[in-house]
Amino acid sequence: MKIVKVGLLGLGNIGTGTYKTLEMNKAQIEAAAECKIEITKILERDVDRKRDITVVPEQFTQDPDSIFQDPEIDIVIELLGGIEPASTFMLSAMKNGKHVVTANKAAVAANFDRLMKTAKENHVDFRFEASVGGGIPILNAITTVLRSNQFEEILGILNGTTNYILTQMTEYGLPYGDVLKKAQEKGFAEADPTADVEGIDVANKLSILMALAFDTYVAPEDIPTTGITDITRADITDAAVNGCKIKLIASAKKTENGLEYSVKPTRIPNSHPLATINNEFNAVFVRGNAVDELMFYGKGAGPLPTGSAVMGDVLEIAKLCGR
Amino acid sequence: MKIVKVGLLGLGNIGTGTYKTLEMNKAQIEAAAECKIEITKILERDVDRKRDITVVPEQFTQDPDSIFQDPEIDIVIELLGGIEPASTFMLSAMKNGKHVVTANKAAVAANFDRLMKTAKENHVDFRFEASVGGGIPILNAITTVLRSNQFEEILGILNGTTNYILTQMTEYGLPYGDVLKKAQEKGFAEADPTADVEGIDVANKLSILMALAFDTYVAPEDIPTTGITDITRADITDAAVNGCKIKLIASAKKTENGLEYSVKPTRIPNSHPLATINNEFNAVFVRGNAVDELMFYGKGAGPLPTGSAVMGDVLEIAKLCGR
After folding, report:
1. What is the chain A residue with the closest CA to B300?
2. Residue B147: pLDDT above 70?
3. A144-156: pLDDT as tens digits
4. Domain B142-299 superfamily per CATH
5. Per the database record, which ranges form the Homoserine dehydrogenase catalytic domain (chains A, B) (predicted)?
6. Is residue B130 scored above 70 in pLDDT?
7. Taking CB atoms and an 8 Å limit, are B294 and A296 in contact across chains?
8. DSSP per residue over A223-263, as a string?
9. Which of A203, A218, A308, B95 could be disulfide-bonded to B290 (CB atoms 3.0-4.6 Å)?
10. In this structure, are residues B76 and B65 in contact, taking their beta carbons and an 8 Å threshold?
């Protein structure tokens, strides 16, 4: 069997989860891909950190070009996060003929057209399932088999931190500040929660979903976005009295006036499937003109669910380049 | 652009829904497949029935071999239903080098190994997304990107008729017989509902899911199967008192003693995502060792949702044979 070689950029939490997913499920992944898959080089400064995986010191490099210019490497996985240098690294990898897989919603949303165009020009695959909905295989579905539909509407709960906060506020009647603090203590919210609670993270994901489902790229900063910081206990009680829950909803809908889109706290009737998505879970609700309504539900974050999505992309690419 | 030609076996409700899905979304499907797709021949006795689609009389044939032996046809869609002659027809199509797409759970479950083997021997694709969960793209997910996981458990609500009956019994406190009659009047249950209410239809679908997710084929008749005909109002009330709903659940789970599987009415805690799946909707709940829990929700039947799944399969095959 051919060996498909992979260069990994970043061995933080998600990188470690991805590495671990391959370690745990190597036999099964290689059987499905019909080739061997090996992570041969890792760009990472912190070589000493204890990780629950088997990495030999020789795999680490501090020089990204040693990965991009390695003729043996077929696939580059980018898990650095942030727009730069991640975007530049992905473009370099593509220009060197490497297929690219990433979980980086900020970079994909910021540079969607350029990344897609560069991948096409260089005849390489570019996959980013993990960038939207973590482990939920939504991008694969809407770009392959569900293309038999014209999409009419997409609604998503796409951020685990804010969904956790809203769920706890709803279930225990707690104020926003108290729940945020609790979420930070539990590791569900970052020390600086701005990108999550202001809806910026969700806007990135909606930008990617719209580009794929509606062939319409809208930059994240051009999506009308409201976060959850102003939601009060009174708002939540008032919604409950009216048979609704408040969720931070990413929405894109075809209308007579074109595509309408936003990220904002929204009342969802208790009877709607999205009302049942609680705590750190994510869900994407899709309406197509043939399939009618679909919903995909799962863990929107975490090292292993994200690793599942990243390795799923690697597997699909390896199937082709392993031949 | 190359033209990929399709022969269609059966133009009943699902056949018409499939034809209509292609008519409605032709431009988009062809753009995604990067080829033209044309249904050129249709095996169907009832040529006079009014259908809301544009079929020219010359497309109809009464001779299946005129489709299997047509060197111009690339893909055969089988929508006759029932084990025979559908299975024999699919095998003939494969032996003549045609890719095959079907929605026929009875035929796929009964002859899984033979159909898969014959497809492999003849280097053709064999896809059957619509056979499990109607429009829900679950088979594509578990056979492609989710292969980065080892599956631990699959739970499904896989039959719209029985889920409708149980939902109505639960919501309105009605007895089984009354709801069945109502379902038959509404067209949600067949005149002879045996295959649905006795769980036979669900056992077929679980057989297919297990073969794909666990690489373990179990014939439907070897799956311990209990239907919903003995469920009483008292059972449902007693479940409700204990915070549960009764659902007809297809279950397959890896245990220390190997794979355990069954189809039977099961108490699902109200907090479980499957408890929220009501009426004619289906859902498949999957647990993988990396991705953790996922759920896929959508319409399990109906001409257009099923047509969406069939045309999704056709699209994926056309992508490859259109090159």
Report:
1. A291
2. yes
3. 999 999 999 999 9
4. Dihydrodipicolinate Reductase; domain 2 (3.30.360.10)
5. 137-315
6. yes
7. yes
8. S-B--STT--HHHHHHHHHTTEEEEEEEEEEEETTEEEEEE
9. A308
10. no
pLDDT of residue B188: 82
How close, in Å, is residue A138 to chain B by CA atoms? 9
Report which DSSP code applies to A84. T
Q: In Å, how far is B312's CA from the nearest CA of chain A?
A: 4
* Answer CATH for B3-134+303-321 from 3.40.640.10, 3.40.225.10, 1.10.3210.10, 3.40.50.720: 3.40.50.720
Q: What is the pLDDT of residues A40-51, one digit of tens each?
A: 999 999 999 999
pLDDT of residue A1: 84
Catalytic residues of A: 205
Question: Which positions 127-186 of B are in contact with A (Cβ < 8 Å)?
Answer: 129, 135-137, 140-141, 144-150
> Residues B282-295: what's their mean pLDDT?
98
> Which residue in A32, A135, A276 is closest to B291 by CB distance?
A135
Beta bridge partners of B232: none
Residue A322, pLDDT score: 67
Query: Treating both helix axes as pointing N-terminal to C-terminal, what angle do B233-241 and B160-172 enclose, rounded to 10 degrees?
Result: 70
Which residues in chain A come in under a pLDDT of 70? 322-323
User: What are the C-alpha distances in Å from B160 to residues A167, B2, B185, B229?
Assistant: 30, 39, 15, 15
Residues of A in contact with B292 (CB under 8 A): 135, 298-299, 302, 304-305
Domain limits, chain A: 3-135+303-321, 142-299
Which of B144, B294, B312 is nearest residue A316 as measured by Cβ atoms?
B144
3 state DSSP class of A319: helix
Query: Within an 8 Å CB–CB cutoff, is residue A309 touching chain B?
Result: yes
The percent of residues in chain A predicted with pLDDT above 70, rounded, is 99
Binned at pLDDT 50, 70 and 90, residue B247 comes out as: very high
Q: Was B319 annotated as part of a binding site? A: no
Distance CA B156, CA A205 (A): 29
Closest partner CB to B315 (pick from A136, A145, A311):
A145
Contacts of A150 (CB under 8 A, 6+ apart): A288, A289, B24, B25, B28
B10 touches chain A (CB under 8 A): no
Q: Which long-range contacts (CB under 8 A, 24 or more apart) does B179-183 make?
A: none
The superfamily (CATH) of domain A3-135+303-321 is NAD(P)-binding Rossmann-like Domain (3.40.50.720)
**Averaged pLDDT score across all residues of chain B:** 96
Q: Is B133's pLDDT higher than 80? A: yes
User: Is residue B323 pLDDT above 90, yes or no?
Assistant: no
* Chain A residues within an 8 Å CB radius of B137: 141, 145-146, 294
**Bridge-based pairing state of the strands A3-9 and A36-43:** parallel
Subunit contact A297:B295, Cβ cutoff 8 A: yes
Mean pLDDT to the nearest integer, B71-79: 98
